[in-house]
Design goal:
Order of helices and strands: EEHHHEHEHEHEH
Number of helices: 7
Helix content: 25-40%
CATH superfamily of the largest domain: Ribosomal protein L4/L1
Number of domains: 2
Distance between the termini: 22 Å
CATH topology of the largest domain: Ribosomal Protein L4, Chain: A
Strand content: 5-15%
CATH class of the largest domain: Alpha Beta
Strand order of the largest sheet: 2-1-3-6-4-5
Number of strands: 6
Shape: elongated
Largest sheet: 6 strands, mixed
Low-confidence stretches: none
Structural class: alpha/beta
Radius of gyration: 27 Å
Mean pLDDT: 93
CATH architecture of the largest domain: 3-Layer(aba) Sandwich
């Protein structure tokens, strides 16, 4: 597949052929769904936590004698039957949400999403970004040079670029990520993917070992 290459002024300067083993993979929505669900599950943190009767303070003594008063039998005021007592079957922070997915499945799902981006015209290649100062206004103008119908954009950097990261972090719906850290969840969270040419080399070296 051939794709246009732009400079940061938005002018087409050349064309390049995308590697078939990364950008020519047939889609399998079920596999992509599995990988995305596992990513979202692995990011979850169990916050909700209720105390059972062993964790609630107090209730060390029997509230009244077992027999003789005509009342129901109780052993502790921290029973789930009592107000301010423990909670039965409530949410616990010990719950584990993590799901394991084999590396080969993750890699193949990533290639499927990248292939779909390329097929749908949502992949934009740039020769390189040159930003001398971390100015949001400057980079916002650069983004406007590209054929983007909406600003929802993920930028895959070949290496750490502090100026570019600082320039983009205040732009809504724009995120930077290192090319070696690309994943299905981030790719599907944004409509467009912008890659400098050297990022494709990084993707090949990282995921096609």
């Amino acid at each position: 597949m051939k794709i246009k290459v732009y400079n940061q002024d938005g002018k087409e300067i050349s064309q390049t052929t995308l590697p078939k083993e990364i950008f020519g993979i047939k889609a399998n929505p079920d596999l992509v769904w599995q990988v995305v669900v596992s990513q979202m599950a692995n990011k979850r943190k169990p916050i909700a936590h209720t105390k059972d009767r062993s964790e609630v303070s107090g209730g060390g003594r029997k509230p009244w004698p077992q027999k003789g008063l005509g009342r129901a039998r109780h052993g502790s005021i921290r029973s789930p039957l009592w107000r301010h007592g423990g909670v039965t079957f409530g949410p616990r922070k010990e719950r584990i949400f993590k799901k394991k997915i084999p590396k080969k499945m993750k890699r193949k799902a990533l290639f499927m999403v990248l292939s779909q981006k390329a097929n749908d015209g949502e992949l934009i290649l740039v020769d390189e970004f040159k930003i001398t100062k971390p100015k949001t206004k400057v980079f916002y103008k650069i983004l406007k040079n590209f054929p983007l119908k909406k600003l929802s954009t993920l930028i895959g950097l070949p290496k750490l670029d502090k100026n570019l990261i600082l320039a983009t972090r205040n732009i809504p719906k724009v995120k930077t990520i290192l090319a070696k850290d690309l994943n299905c969840l981030d790719l599907l969270s944004f409509k467009y993917l912008i890659l400098p040419l050297t990022s494709i080399k990084v993707i090949k070296e990282t995921f096609l070992k």
